[in-house]
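Entry 14. Ran structure prediction on the chain below.
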Amino acid sequence: MLLQAACVLLTACLPLATAGPVSRPKAGFDWSSTKALIAFGDSYTYVQGTHGHQNFSFIGDQFNLAYTSETLLTNKIVQNQTATAEGGPNWVEFLTKCGIKEGLTSPQSCKKQLWDFAFAGADISTEYTPLHHNFTVSLVDQVNQFKQYGHPALKHTIKSQLTLIAIWIGINDINDSAQYAVDFPTFYKSITDALFDSVEDLYGLGYKNYLFMNLPPLDRTPGNQAKSSPSPNATQVEWYNSALAEHAAAFAGKHKDAEVMLFDAHARLGAILDEPAKYGIVNTTNFCPGYDQPDIAVNYENYGCPTPLDKYFWFNSGHMTSHVHQVLAEEVEDWLRR
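Output, structure tokens:
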């Protein structure tokens, strides 16, 4: 009943098992006029910054949450092999065309500025799952940090009405809690309650445009494909995605002036796994063991890899290759332009 309500409240709704968006942008949303994207999330979304925690963030960490406006505005996106968790640009970089070139990029130099507050290894809230490291910044704290330091620094640089908030979170939550002895639908509802409490904070700052990404098919990671009983399993992923859809629908119903979009990343990535040849991918079942070697791009065969990394779906045991992120970003952009 709740999922049916979610479909009614959102502008359009497709079953999670089919390829396509869960909700489409409204006629009033104009991606071409969007000047900035502010991102929150985990390692699927994080980008390295010159003032960030190495291999984890664009700026700061749990021990260094405070920063000045000057520190943020002079921060630069780093693009190299280790600057994301994907071995190259990730989806928000491809989507904004910001920070995709090797070297350093100031977000302010991009046509669509990318301000990324995601933290690799983040869960939504420590109320439900523990931090991966003592320096990890959870989604709740990412938003709190942004409220205190990011928004005051950016409010004179970008316009909220021309800004899109992008949130992709839950991957670590579902992995970390997969073996909990809980009623999972209820548990996932509680986690997403905490998520949308933070989204309410962002709305209170004046941001009205939101893009949510649901969970990828985590039951099809290399490790899970080798198991007779994947963890998390497909049902758990579906339960979480249903909770996210219901919360997004409720948020859209509560805030009629907000643009609330939920992209079905689960279905789109599942479609790539089902028909990889369409996307130039030949390996969907495992990953190159030398993925993190500095010469992997040219000497992949030395590490037992028959093809370059961009022919793999999985970059490592839990992350997708930069090539898959590029394909996904192109589809998200096409969808945003409709």
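The CA atoms of residues 9 and 249 lie 5 Å apart. Will compare against last week's run tomorrow.
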